[in-house]
Specification:
Elements (H helix, E strand, L loop, with lengths): L1 H12 L13 E4 L3 E5 L7 H9 L10 H8 L15 E7 L8 H9 L2 E8 L4 H8 L5 E4 L9 H12 L7 E8 L6 H16 L8 E8 L3 E5 L7 H8 L11 H7 L18 E7 L6 H13 L2 E8 L4 H8 L5 E4 L9 H11 L9 E8 L6 H14 L10 E8 L5 E3 L7 H9 L10 H8 L16 E8 L8 H9 L2 E8 L4 H8 L5 E4 L8 H14 L6 E9 L14 H15 L13 E7 L12 H7 L12 H8 L10 E8 L7 H14 L3 E6 L23 E2 L5 H8 L1
Parallel strand pairs: 3-4, 4-5, 6-7, 6-9, 9-10, 10-11, 12-13, 12-15, 15-16, 16-17, 18-19, 18-20, 20-21, 21-22
Antiparallel strand pairs: 1-2, 7-8, 13-14
Helix pairs in contact: 1-2, 3-4, 4-5, 7-8, 9-10, 10-11, 13-14, 15-16, 19-23, 21-22
Length: 733
């Protein structure tokens, strides 16, 4: 197993670009002590690292993971080869339960900017792994060491995604570039390389990222305004043009000139609440430094975020005067070091950029927990979070309307949909809300919140406008909410639930009827994470109001008693008898309209043995061909089985509905935790439903912890031979 772990490490590193100016790798082994194999600046080639891993010897003894996390802290310091500007990752691999506390040492590392991925093999404790990573999406778990190879690509993909924000979505950005006499041709090229790198990371387009640029020395010259170019290549081609440098450095004059660039007339979307960003790059002191502070302050007060990059003799106090604080400044010794700023500046652009939302019209009510279960500081964190979210929605012309209410001792309506507040006043009112306190009777609150969507309150459901209710709660519902939710659903209100703290997804499910519309977070502090905010915007914009006119269904068979060469239906006459009518029923949803008179087209693929399944419209002849299939042997419903079914969708359009339908004779000794984890991953990847029919004649609930897609019928257990089983499955689809 130790050898398999070493192979896993070498396979991961083979997918990473390693070198003095690229990724640096270190390896530490731990048991009840830590043992340095090599630190970050020891080796810079794949072969050297691979050879060193091969020479590792197993320590044995106990599993003191918390102690190891504390010891690892020093390995992310310059003394051990870490670089100040480099992103920091720790990949922890363990097969045992930690015998010491892990929460605090892991948090200390994460607080210093280290992203921790936890890889657990069979005996590892899932709860501890999540405590270490601080985020369940950074945890990977497999049943045995042989299965480590199945997560290699996924793990590296997650590392790369977090290392490098690939696509900056919605932003207006102006580059202000020093072209004074102190800059030679080679240095100018380094400055343009930085600018072009940032442009390449942006989704340039009139509705996404708009880019403008200005060069200056004694006088400013606009190279191009915001919105001039609607694609990356045109922006890059213009920036690549050779330009003369010369003259003195009048930085305040250049900044003052950008005022005109941040106007609607010249392409700015500042009135549409799109974030405005200015990056200035200079290598010297300003000749009009006395005007610098006031000029920059005027821009910042207008809502423009300024990031100041200084090179060589640039004055740090001037950089801070422009940016407004030290955190928004960067200073390097020479132009060659500008490449060290690629990632930090790119991350700032990612952070400040908005998440795109294609919803054109919506009535959106945020309904949050103001009960005694939420502390004052947690309540402030929650209201600040909601205030920040609003920046992502186009509230111009009242196309999207925002309402707010809270629940606790009563039901205070804070902001009705018919409000006419400006965005700054709306945000101010949210941030000054007084907590209601009391017991969280969410059942009573849901009964009352429907009035928020009434026409008299500004709701537009009669005009066909999307109705969305976002519930933020710190507790599971104490009383039954089914009747209240049914009323909301009948009114066409889409309910999303965000549970924070001591909540359980299965208890929140009656509020949505769809587990994909539930997000659970460990604590209120996670609301301050920019990534969480962007994820929540995506959930709001994508979870309600979408329809699928194509559905792909993969049908799998899990029969653990099969022997090599036996017919597929051997020993299961009920399956052979009922399957044709079930397939007829589930494909009959093609006669249901999915909007605008379009019928749903259902394609089915049957996954048996290792044969590549083919999607096709169902006909009786397909079932007849299944009767001729002989199996390769027994199958087992585990995480790998689910993954093999999921891979059948690889070449299908992501816009299609995607459903797994499995006929199973039971779990046997398979790990439910692994199945739940895999189910969550598939759901996050886009699977719409995972439905399991028991081949045992008595109903079993062993599949309920990882099934999803039954809506409000989630407590019903499906069994072969059940009356109208096909119609029930059809209803879920």
């Amino acid at each position: 197993n130790f050898g398999k772990m070493k192979t896993f490490m070498k396979n991961l590193l083979a997918k990473i670009q390693i070198g003095p100016e690229r990724s640096h790798i270190g390896v530490i082994q731990f048991s009840d002590q830590t043992q340095e194999e090599f630190q970050l600046n020891k080796y810079f080639t794949q072969n050297e690292i691979s050879d060193s891993i091969d020479r590792m010897s197993l320590i044995n003894r106990n599993t003191l993971t918390g102690n190891a996390l504390t010891s690892i802290d020093e390995y992310f310091t310059p003394a051990k080869g870490a670089r100040a500007m480099a992103k920091k990752f720790l990949i922890l691999i363990t097969d045992g339960e930690a015998q010491d506390p892990v929460r605090d040492p892991a948090k200390a590392l994460r607080d210093k900017g280290v992203v921790i991925f936890s890889v657990g093999v069979y005996g590892a404790n899932r709860t501890q792994l999540e405590e270490i990573s601080g985020d369940g999406s950074l945890v990977f778990q497999v049943e045995k060491f042989d299965d480590l190879k199945t997560i290699e690509s996924k793990l590296i993909f997650r590392v790369c995604a977090l290392h490098d924000c690939k696509n900056i979505k919605v932003l207006d950005i102006v580059f202000v570039l020093d072209h004074s006499g102190s800059i030679n041709t080679e240095e100018q090229e380094s400055m343009m390389d930085l600018t072009i790198h940032l442009v390449k990371k942006a989704d340039v387009g009139s509705a996404r990222v708009r880019i403008g640029a200005l060069k200056y020395s004694e006088y400013p010259e606009v190279l191009f305004h915001l919105g001039k170019y609607s694609n990356r290549s045109a922006v890059i081609e213009h920036l690549r043009r050779r330009r003369d440098t010369g003259g003195r450095t009048f930085t305040a004059r250049a900044l003052d000139h950008t005022n005109i660039m941040f106007t609607e007339e010249h392409g700015s979307r500042i009135q549409q609440n799109v974030k405005q960003m200015l990056i200035i790059i200079t290598d010297g002191e300003s000749d009009d430094r006395n005007q610098l502070n006031d000029t920059a302050l005027k821009l910042r007060n207008k809502g423009i975020d300024i990031y100041a990059v200084g090179i060589g003799k640039a004055n740090q106090l001037e950089l801070e005067a422009m940016a407004g604080n030290k955190n928004n400044t960067f200073h390097v010794d020479n132009f060659n070091k500008l490449k060290d700023l690629y990632l930090p500046l790119q991350e700032r652009m990612c952070t400040i950029a908005l998440e795109p939302c294609d919803i054109q019209e919506a009535d959106m009510v945020f309904f949050f927990d103001g009960s005694d279960m939420v502390s004052h500081s947690e309540f402030v964190t929650m209201t600040t979070f909601v205030s920040d979210l609003i920046d992502n929605f186009n509230l111009q012309n009242q196309r999207i309307k925002i309402g707010l209410a809270q629940f606790g001792s009563g039901f205070p309506k804070i902001i009705e949909l018919k409000n006419s507040l400006t965005i700054p006043k709306l945000k101010t009112q949210i941030q000054t809300i007084t907590k209601s306190n009391g017991f969280p009777r969410i059942d009573l609150a849901l009964k009352k919140v429907k009035v928020m969507f009434d026409p008299s309150s500004g709701g537009r459901r009669n005009a066909g406008v999307l109705q969305t209710l976002v519930v933020i709660t710190s507790r599971d519902p104490y009383y039954n909410v089914a009747d209240e939710v049914k009323v909301l659903r009948n009114l066409g209100i889409c309910v999303l639930v965000w549970g924070i703290g001591d909540v359980h997804k299965e208890q929140l499910l009656p509020m949505t009827g769809d587990s994909r519309k539930i997000i659970t977070l460990k604590d209120f502090n996670t609301l301050t994470d920019v990534g969480i905010k962007k994820r929540m915007v995506r959930e709001i914009c994508q979870s309600c109001g979408t329809t699928n006119c194509f559905m792909d269904i993969v049908v799998g068979f899990d029969i653990s008693t099969h022997l090599l060469g036996q017919p597929l239906f051997y020993g299961h006459p009920l399956l052979e008898s009922y399957l044709p009518s079930i397939l007829e029923d589930i494909t009959s949803i093609g006669r249901v309209s999915c909007g605008a008179g379009t019928e749903v087209q259902v394609n089915v693929a049957f996954k048996v043995n290792s044969i590549t399944a083919k999607f096709q419209l169902y006909q009786r002849a397909i079932f007849d061909s299944l009767r001729q299939v002989n199996v390769d042997g027994p199958t087992h419903l585990n995480a790998q089985f689910l993954q093999s079914l999921w891979e059948t969708f690889n070449d299908r359009a992501k816009s299609h509905g995607q459903v797994l339908l499995i006929f199973s004779d039971g779990l046997g000794g398979e790990s439910e935790i692994m199945l739940e984890d895999q189910s969550d991953r598939l759901r996050a990847a886009g699977l719409d439903a995972l439905l399991v029919v028991s081949l045992n004649t008595t109903a079993h609930d062993e599949f309920s912890s990882f099934e999803f897609g039954k809506g409000f019928d989630y407590r019903t257990h499906l069994t072969i031979g059940m009356r109208e089983l096909g119609k029930m499955l059809s209803q879920y689809l």
